[in-house]
Design a protein that fits this description.
single chain, 310 residues, mainly alpha, four-stranded mixed beta sheet
Amino acid sequence: MKYIGLNRQIWNNNIKSVILLILFPLVILVLVWLFVFLVQPSSDLRLETANDMFLRSFPFVIAGVGLWFIIAWFSHTAMIERATGSTPLSRKENKRIYNLVENLCIGSGMPMPKVNVIDDDSLNAFASGISTSTFTVSLSRGIIEKLNDEELEAVIAHELTHIRNRDVRLLIISIIFVGIFAFLTEALVRSVRFGGGRGRKDGRAVIIALMLAAIGYFLSSIFRFAISRQREYMADAGSATMTKNPLALASALEKISADSQIEAVKRQDIAQMFIDNPQDKKIRPVSFSMAALFMTHPPIEKRIELLKQF
């Protein structure tokens, strides 16, 4: 992989992320219109009727999505901490970590985030929070104990870059949109299974809705994975710039990839927050092929290769 320069890489990844983020609400609106159009009986006025019904339903769709979004947005940080079992790490318990975090924050002009620890011997870390008061860097006990100071500093810089670039907000937004389609798909599947004596017309509408929801879930998942991969490349580049030591992060990633499975983390939307998503290993290809579309992180070999070219 040819390295194209840090500023160019950040610019390219930001543009791609903005485009992908715009596609989420666009997919929702397109699929709502398709549903309204497809359930209409065939006639010369089909298109006109569909447009009229779409415009009338538009405020309710926006209100429903907005309500879902608000609830999910404010509950997500607490949900992450519960899912990972992370707890606050006091300065007295580990001055080494606090010194590393503080030095990096001072050097980059960032406010000091909270520091949490995950009681697990595996090697992994993640950043969370949607505001200055909730920004948190969480490290597993394994990564604290098994990495040297330079490697651990590079990992912390990677997570601080996620915070500085507001990647957590971006990922939460993408996860929320995917969750909308996942919920609709599951609800419609249950409706089909237990619909019983549903009329032919209603049954047809449910089947159409199910097909469109499944398409929406597939597309939004692809968008989410693409956003996540772009932000990982940016966080790697940010770590290299912040520490002036890209080889330290490359070395850390090699160690992390050998044992990154946090036992408490079972959900994909939580696992994708980590510096290495162990669930990706189930589908990780030898080359960046079609299967890579369903990975939340770039292949770690490519990340290491790029870091070695700084």
